[in-house]
Amino acid sequence: MLVDILVIIWMHFIADFIFQSNEVARGKSSSNAILGKHVTLYSIPFFWFGWQFAIINMLAHFATDWITSRITKRLWADNEVHWFFVVIGLDQAVHMTTLITTYWWLVL
């Protein structure tokens, strides 16, 4: 179980940040198509834990990023750097909570 959780955390980091291009990082806050591209690429590694795990987290990731990317876009434009990073942290906390809760619910 602990190894799986660590794998999920590192998969999330790689999928959410390394797999994200400049185009996606900049465009996901204003284009659902670009956000969809991000979420689709993000979700591929999570099929390791089953299709239900991947699909649930794909949908949750889309919803979370849809909200947080629009908030961070506005905060960055307003030079609200502290609150920008607070929302980034919140975004990551929501993703971790979703991933671990889904693992507990479906895999354990």
Task: Describe what you observe in this structure.
The protein is mainly α and 108 residues long. 81% of the residues lie in helices and 0% in strands. It has five helices and no strands. Helix 1 runs antiparallel to helix 3, helix 1 packs across helix 5 and helix 4 runs antiparallel to helix 5. It is globular. The N and C termini lie close together (8 Å). The relative contact order is 0.15.
Helix content: over 70%
Oligomer: single chain
Mean pLDDT: 97
Overall 3D shape: globular
Query: SS-based structural class?
Result: mainly alpha
Count of β-strands: 0
> How far apart are the first and last residues' alpha carbons, in Å?
8 Å
Gyration radius (Cα, Å) is 14 Å
Describe this protein with a few key phrases:
single chain; 5 helices; about 110 residues; mainly alpha; about 0% strand
Concise overview:
This protein has helices at about 1-20, 20-25, 30-45, 50-75, 80-105.
Topology readout:
Layout: H1 2-18, H2 22-27, H3 32-43, H4 51-77, H5 81-106
Helix pairs in contact: 1-3, 1-5, 3-4, 4-5
